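User: Here's a chain of 503 residues. Predict its fold as tokens.
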Amino acid sequence: MYTFSSKLKTFSFILMVVGILGIGYGFLNAPKTTEDVEKILAADEHHGGGHHAQAEATHEATAHEAAPAHQETPAAEAEVPAADKTAVAATDEAHDSIAPVDSTKAAAPVVVEAPKKEKVVTEAEEHAAHQAHLEHVLHQLQNKPWSAVYVSCIFFLLLTMGTLAFYAIQQVAQAGWSPVLFRVMQGITSYLPVGSVILLVFLIAGGLHMHHLFPWLGEGVTDPKSPNYDEIIAGKSGYLNFPFWIIRAIVFLLGWNLYRHFSRKNCLAQDEANDNAFYKKNFNISAMFLVFFIVSESIMSWDWIMSLDPHWFSTLFGWYVFASFFVSGITTICMITLYLKGQGYLEHVNTSHIHDLAKFMFGISVFWTYLWFSQFLLIWYANIPEEVTYFVTRIEHYNLPFFGAVVMNFVFPILILINTDFKRITWVLVMAGTVILLGHYVDFFNMIMPATVGDQWFIGATEIGALMFFLGLFIFVVFTTLTKAPLLPKRNPYIEESKHFHY
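Assistant: Prediction complete.
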């Protein structure tokens, strides 16, 4: 039986406490008024620019383009594009070449239109535009702590789901190499009920307008009479409405948790059974779960992530999200197995088991890259405005995390894990696993933050605090569960094959 190390338990509590403090700091320091935003922007500009100053400059440039100021000085003439100057010169030449009109004959008057003058932007209009920008930035900065919590919340929940899907696949495939790892997988999936409750509370909070991460939940967006009316969102209101949305979430979370509960229950019962009846039950429910999972996972990705940006969609998005959390789950299995092995447990786990986990880490990393590139290339090459704007936002304002995720999730695993010998070396796998997990956290950050905070992002106390809190909670729940049952399934039909797995 595994004993939860007091040092690890204390570490998990420290992570949770420090994480809560970081989250609280983020919420308390979020701006409350536009005056607060103005101070933040001014301070940021004073300290050398940054995202806020850049956003302010971009806004001012856009405002001047939309409503150019009236200029009557020669400087205004210098700003006229060359093509326009040519057209004006041609007009003047044509005007000068008009033949004199015989005053004795009636003639239609020649009307020469005066050049159109640029509209005047009054001080009141400029002030209104500035206030509108401040309001927009205020909403983004108020979203920031909620978004930071949401990124970590959904990352750890879906990481657990990746482990559960991998466990179900092993059951259905009747794999002979993996039964010695089943209790590790079950320990990881024990976080699912806790993570599900937290996520459900978060989603309900959105429906109650406690946060505004989901634009389609906004007031009046589906009402044609409202100034907030959005035609695209209104067209999707049959699907994107709170009652239907939250019912789907409950059905998905309930289905996943029921499978997790009964599969573990049957696995533990198999230890005391005289036949393989419980193993066969697990095979049947695992097959049914995988059908349910592949449908619910795709819809979940649309509901909980893609709907943050309801004007955009991708038919590949469900697979892309799946690849991200699937490789994260497999990596977590490998990391916890290595830890337990280092503590003297899992005596039947050998380098061949570790090598197989590393192969999955390598293969699914390549699969994730294939989906990342496929989605990016097709949308970027087609250059359809309502589609490509998703990537334009991320490349312009999230350049480092956007391309950094590719390095962490593809380049690094390829360079390290392509070597067969490295797949058996503990410190190499710990290093690779750490980078992969951080890289896929960044991947979820890229999916969520641009839609909720725009260019007002930075890694601060809230982001670090949320990551620490959920990591601490995850460690505490998982390792507590590992103490409640033997780490080796005794009567699995393939347990002897798994114990002696070598190649």
